[in-house]
Write a structure and sequence with these properties.
single chain, mainly beta, seven-stranded mixed sheet, five-stranded antiparallel sheet, globular
Length: 202
């Protein structure tokens, strides 16, 4: 099934929530109560996107979107509407610099030369249908290379040369439920309200 783009509407969402579901494992000693935890490579993004009192045209597009998604079987590229562009300087034509990368740091080339604050904590970057949050201020060197601290850690090694998206990056998601729809209030300008819960898939 083709991965859809988020519907192009006349208005941005009224409200969004965005969170990271980290996967951990816990062991608690029955003798001392001491607790050990371990992070597993299964963290995923989740979001709630709300449209309140949408226009008739936007409501029709959102209903069509629900039909195309077919419950949890569909996939869609979802941006973080609250953080569509970096607060850092940004710019350049960044790509993944080297294959076989793992962990919580990503080597990137193609940034602007010798730029302090190129990316700042909380900025979002995307590549290959996944999205990561920058966790430390990032500067580029004289050749435009940078080492970017990210969360969550890489689940798999990205392809060398993969394009890094800084402006409105997206993550591949599915609807969290097979039951999705809208509320309708005839006395309120005949408008609809939609609430979408989505989770990352990989």
């Amino acid at each position: 099934m083709t991965t859809l783009s988020w519907p192009s509407l006349t208005a941005e969402p009224t409200r969004t929530e965005w969170w990271l579901e980290t996967l951990t494992q816990e062991h608690r000693s029955p003798l001392t109560g001491a607790t050990q935890t371990q992070e597993l490579l299964g963290a995923r993004w989740a979001t709630r996107v709300e449209y309140h009192n949408t226009s008739v045209g936007d409501a029709r597009l959102l209903w069509a979107f629900l039909g195309q998604m077919r419950g949890r079987s569909g996939r869609v590229y979802v941006p973080n509407f609250g953080r569509p562009r970096p607060h850092g300087v940004g710019g350049g034509t960044p790509v993944v610099d080297g294959g076989s990368q793992t962990g919580s740091t990503l080597a990137i080339s193609g940034g602007p030369l010798s730029t302090a604050g190129w990316l700042l904590p909380g900025d979002m970057i995307g590549f290959g249908g996944v999205m990561h949050m920058v966790t430390a201020s990032t500067a580029t060197d004289g050749t435009g290379d940078a080492s970017v601290a990210i969360a969550p850690p890489l689940r798999s090694s990205p392809s060398n040369g993969a394009t890094i998206t800084l402006v409105r990056p997206t993550v591949t998601m599915m609807l969290a439920s097979d039951r999705n729809g809208s509320s309708y209030e005839p006395g309120h300008l005949n408008r609809h309200t939609f609430v979408f819960d989505l989770v990352e898939v990989f």
